[in-house]
Each structure stands twice: as structure tokens, then as C-alpha cells.
Amino acid sequence: MGFGTNPHVAKAETAEQKATDAEDDHARVQGWLEAGRQWERAAAREKDPKRRALYTDKAASARTSAET
To answer: In this predicted model, what pLDDT tens digit does every residue of 5-33 receive, in sequence order?
Structure first.
């Protein structure tokens, strides 16, 4: 992780991967919810409006995936 990078992006991507690889529904839902939380944290730390909007959209998408 380099200087100035947003650590929550990597955490969100890892949570998405865990959710995708999960074998049971409960783990899958928890993975997507964690990814949504991490994307929200990434958006809160982001200064660039385009990236902030992208992270917010990814958070919403992760939560939608958790509900389905």
C-alpha cells in the first residue's frame, strides 16, 4: 500500500471477492454487506468527486447484491 492510497478500496475489493467465493448464503450476504461498508468508508475518505461517486455507487451495488 503506497502513500496516499485509500486502504478501504483494497478492503472492499477483498470483501467482494470473499462474497463471490462464499459457499453458503449467510457468508455471501455478510461479504456483500462488508463490501458495502468498506466502499462507504472509501467514499468518505476520497477527495476526488468522480471517485467518491464511483465508490458510493459500488456501495449501493454491494448492498443490492446482499439483498438478492
So the answer is: 899 999 999 999 999 999 999 999 999 99
